Hints:
By secondary structure, the chain is mostly beta strands.
Amino acid sequence: xxxxxxxAPPLFLLTTLLSCGQFPDVQGTDPYALSQLxxxxxxxxxxxxxxxxxxxxxxxxxxxxxxxxxxxMIGVRQVLxxxxxxxxxxxxxxxxTKEDGTxxxxxxxxxxxxxxxxxxxxxxxxPALGQPVAFKTISLSEPLTLLGGERQEIFLSVQSVATxxxxxxLGTAALPPSVGTVMAYRPDRKMAWPAGGxxxxxxxxxxxxxxxxxxxxxxxxxxxxxxxxxxxxxxxQAPATVALKLDPARLPQGMTAADYQVRVNxxxxxxxxxxxxxxxxxxxxxxxxxxxxxxSVIETSTGERIALPGKTLSSAGLxxxxxxxxxxxxxxxxxxxxxxxxxxxxxxRIFDCENVAPYVHIVLIDRSNRGRTVGLPITPSxxxxxxYVLRPITSHGEGAAVxxxxxxxxxxxxxxxxxxxxxxxxxxxxxxxxxxxxSTTEAILGFQMQPTDRSRGTSAEFFVGAxxxxxxxxxxxxxxxxTTSIIRNNACNLNLDTTSINRWSAVGxxxxxxxxxxxxxxxxxxxxxxxxxxxxxxYMDGAIRLDGGPSASMTWLGQHIxxxxxxxxxxxxxxxxILNALVWK
Length: 585
């Protein structure tokens, strides 16, 4: 994040001696010669510039954090990370590590190292650049393993002991590549994330048993405040005080911050104090804290966010997987949704089922609207004929009002590391071009081609059968198949799995409408749970399950609204690279 960048000193150009892997080390005259410790520089790390971390390298950042506000600048010739050999991080500079209460420290070096183990660290002083620290080998109680393609943070603590400064190992953490801010919590002191931004946090001394490094990132998902991502998920022994500032420009018409509450781990609701647009509360599980409202809220495709009149959404006393609150709210609001379509709105987003089971984002589309139509974007590979480029949902959905992931594929895994390729598993026809047909029975949605003069909307039909023998009629311009139907024969598919709890996406049709649903970032449900959405809307002509797990993704008005979290984020980043999407554009 920008705040961290301002604290980080630039990487200085390496000297000629450094490029040769050597430093001045005059025997007998230099009290800080590495030979005093029986060590030497075996290699010099390559500075990390930007972009993807190579699979055969580890990105390692070394930071210093001070224990007092009046610490002088320390002079550092280099920091050595040692295992079987010693690697210099290759930076010579003065470091000012005054304690500012945030735990963010000062980045000393950001380099690439080959995978391996580190069991000792050496900070070699440079008295010409600042006060020297005690010159000694810092032995780690447990070796630190560096893994290829990953990012490792190392924090060193600068402490004042009597008349001398010394450096100790504070902690380490493997963090996702894109984390912007890294902080160190130390149990012997209070830590505070600065106020004034979207998130402010204060954690008292003793809130955790041991020192802990963690990364924080704020991601704009189009909500009232950026989504707070934390790695690892921080759960303390004592509550932290948190202040969340809502964006007043994104509040629904007729609502204020006082209409919102906080839920932790989809269960408990801490006491919230509201002052202006800021919600303040205490929690020991900040990573799972989410804001929600019992009001029914929609957003139109023009970006107008509205609180619907009438009774509020009630979820009190429901179990984690009870979908009745979602279903009943949708049933009660059908007429209001239709009124917006009658007034010319072509798509609306419904928020009612995002904080109750089945924990999904919902977008309704009026297919009779002539302003937009359905597309199934896919990118053929120039290098591998017959294969298609895997891209994130934000790329597939560029320029669309809404985009949702398609079905699964054969091929590369779709991680953030480099370009991947794949071929569709199910039936896929895009803009009249057959990408794949199958001889197995599928649940299929087919769409007509919209006339070039846009004299009508986009007709759709639901089919069940083998696509290479089905007669799709005129609904053969854009066609997508799935192994699983959610709705068929105007009813919920009784054979749907009720035990596979995961993230899912689905699309269904009815009444010249279409519903797209995709699980929230930290939600989960079974395929059977998704029935409740289509039953609530009354869209029962047919619905298919799309790909799930880390593939489940949706963009709305240009924002990726359900970015990945947890272990999926480590593998894929905010979004998995996927074969194709269904868009309304």
